[in-house]
Design brief:
Number of strands: 0
Distance between the termini: 5 Å
Shape: elongated
Number of domains: 1
Order of helices and strands: HHHHHHH
Largest sheet: none
Strand content: under 5%
Oligomer: single chain
Low-confidence stretches: none
Helix content: over 70%
Number of helices: 7
Length: 171
């Protein structure tokens, strides 16, 4: 994502420069919301709607503007599709086994799907995989060091955010 933004900003074409600036702003919004939500989830085990809903709206608007500027409507549709897919899969998991995933995680998955889907399906897959691998690794360490047992609840939001951030940076 970083090289992509750099290429847009240095392209010299007005639409591409503006799209790069909008994506840069979107990255800043991602960072602020991600940090706030991670701290809240780590301390309170919840992801508040007062952050998630505005973040989703800003992200969707930003991707709409960038898609129009770049003439990349398929990227916008892919982002929407990925957000819906990731959200529906998490909702199914939530309905099947409520203690496993919170509704905040379901809504967060939609926002993260918007970002990663815009970049491509490989980025979506990498974000999901990295999120689960990171959570599993931390859970394993906590179990091995006896700082947790199999009933300990870990907030999943920070792992979703970190896995997505890594996937987007690598894209």
């Amino acid at each position: 994502m970083i090289p992509f933004i750099g290429d847009l900003i240095t392209s010299g074409a007005a639409a591409e420069v503006l799209a790069g600036m909008v994506l840069l702003l979107g990255g800043m919004v991602f960072a602020v919301c991600a940090i706030a939500l991670s701290f809240i989830d780590l301390t309170e085990h919840r992801l508040p709607n007062r952050i998630l809903y505005p973040w989703a709206a800003v992200t969707a608007g930003m991707l709409l503007v960038v898609s129009v500027l770049l003439g990349d409507i398929p990227g916008l549709l892919r982002g929407i599709g990925a957000g819906l897919l990731w959200g529906v899969l998490f909702l199914i998991a939530r309905l099947a086994h409520p203690p496993s995933i919170g509704m905040g995680d379901v809504k967060l998955a939609v926002v993260l799907g918007l970002y990663t889907g815009f970049l491509g399906w490989a980025t979506v897959a990498a974000a999901v995989l990295l999120s689960f691998l990171l959570a599993g690794a931390v859970a394993l360490v906590l179990l091995l060091t006896r700082q947790a047992d199999r009933r300990t609840r870990l907030p999943f939001g920070p792992f979703l955010i970190l896995g997505t951030a890594i996937a987007m940076i690598a894209a």
